[in-house]
Amino acid sequence: MDKLIYMDNAATTRVEPEVLNEMLPYFSEEYGNPSSAYSFSGRIAKKVAAARESIAGAIGAKDTEVFFTAGGSESDNWAIKGVADALKVKGNHIITTKIEHHAVLHTCEFLEKHGFEVTYLSVDENGVVSIDELKAAIRPSTILISVMFANNEIGTLEPVAQIGHVAHEHGIVFHTDAVQAFGHQPINVDELNIDLLSASAHKLGGPKGVGLLYVRSGVKLSNLIHGGAQEKGRRAGTTNAFGIIGFAKAMELATLGMEKNNAHEAQLRDHLIKRVLEEIPYVKLNGHPTDRLSNNANFSFRFVEGESLLIMLDQKGICASSGSACTSGSLDPSHVLLAIGLPHEIAHGSVRLTLSKDNTMEEVDYVVDSLKQIVEWLRGMSPLYEDFVKKNK
Amino acid sequence: MSQVTEYSEKVMDHFSNPRNVGEMENPSGVGTVGNAKCGDIMRMYLDIDENQVVRDAKFKTFGCGAAIATSSMATELVKGKTIADAMEVTNQAVMEALGGLPPVKVHCSLLAQEAIHAALWDYSQKNDVVIEGLKAPVNDIEETEEYYQTPGE
Complex ipTM above 0.90? Predict the structure, then answer.
């Protein structure tokens, strides 16, 4: 099968050809270290500065507030550990949610071993954080609230502006992991009351290995990566010039095409969801029915297991992902699916399909037709389905 | 980690073309092991003749690629064997016949062995036969949710 239908754009995206072209000269021609003194490097430093300015402008930030990192995980680590260290004299309490990416959750767990206290907010059945629960969790010792912009598994959008507002009412720093939303959702850091924001280039048509942390002027943040004086002395490490240049180009394209791309993806997504829910029995859509990323669909198919489903999709040339335990190497299914209240056995049968502007309606129809066949085949093999059918006879 | 690239050709073959999938009308013995919470349930049906030879085996499995492949291989291995020899179809034997399993999937082969034993136990109870080395299955999905825990994962 030569066919490749890529529907795992929340995992990573294709580098846009225009982005690649923008980056190419900076490998073997303009290869200087932007920190060096000579003019050969100076012009690269200028290009990096322009990239920073361009990305900052796209989110309503100043260029002095954007710091490039090696990716989303580093940005999350820096934001959380950096605030924890800088504000430890003020307090030791952090509020986050049960559905964060592991880059946030595991960082918080690390801090718990070092004297910090963390409240993990629950979410409703759609994956939305409750503002009342957030307010109730705030203590005098709370120094940071970290809530993701959009969930990577189920696509639910969180009420970021409201959360930021609550944080600021209490003088608490607000961080959002916007890795899935950056370049996909309109973001203005002032309007949304964001103090710290993590993003990653490869989720929006840019290269892997480069991300950023937006740090609002005046927010106290200790360094994470110590060494050279790059990034105004805030983040050491040789400037990833081609990565940053590619990131900026990807963001430029994503911003320009956002409305059109979102409309296209939402149309495909809605068709996908409608057909799956109508044509396959015993299936549930996970995540908020409307307040979700325009490219995300996440389903639980009862009586089947996700990894089997993924392998069979792969055999039909379809790339998707699952919240099944068997795809993670642990025995527990996705923490996000458990947090929205799915029983283990239903969470095991989940599949995530994340679209891009390059997907077509024909591809969506092919995926639904394939899913129908595969789910029917696996249910035919499932003792759970056998018992269910016998019980309901 | 990509499951597809970690599975052996034999595992992929038994996953894609599983042998002996199905139910049995009046099995000599049937056993169900694992639990849905952990994402693996295996049910094995055995048809055993008057000479205590496994005439036929069928299975149904809810689980990952490795769980389906090990179920399929386990049914192939017990078919035609005496009940005493069927006891020798261990998880190791199933795994070897499949050309190995990725380390995180080894527990699936244990489940296959448990399924054979559970079906044999059912047969031994129904027919008042003592099978050497066979113990009552500790697990029963109806009774316990927490049966299956793999240490170290």
Answer: no
CB A166 within 8 A of CB A135: yes
Q: Give the number of other Cβ atoms within 10 Å of residue A55's Cβ.
A: 27
Question: Smallest Cα–Cα separation from A99: which of A177, A174, A167?
Answer: A177
DSSP conformation class of A129: B
Identify all chain A residues contacting B38, using CB atoms and an 8 Å cutoff.
325, 331, 344
The answer to whether the Cβ–Cβ distance between B4 and A314 falls below 8 Å is: yes
Does A270 reach chain B within 8 Å, measured CB to CB?
no
Neighbour tally for B132: CB within 10 Å: 7
Q: Name which of A311, A333, A383 is nearest B39 (Cβ-Cβ).
A: A333
- Domains, in order of start, for chain B: 9-147 (3.90.1010.10)
Question: Known catalytic residue: B64?
Answer: no
- Sign of the Cα torsion A388, A281, A180, B1 reads positive
Cβ neighbours, 10 Å, residue A135: 11
Of A259-268, A320-329, A349-358, B47-56, the range with the lowest mean pLDDT is A320-329
Query: pLDDT for B27-62, tens place per residue?
Result: 999 999 987 777 889 999 999 999 999 999 999 999
Q: Name every residue whose Cβ is closer than 8 Å to that of residue A70 and which is 6 or more positions away in sequence.
A: A209, A210, A211, A237, A240
Q: Given B3, B62, B104, which is nearest A383 (Cβ)? A: B62
- Read off the DSSP letter of residue A16: P
- With vertex at residue A236, the alpha carbon angle to CA A232 and CA A239, rounded to the nearest 5 degrees, is 80
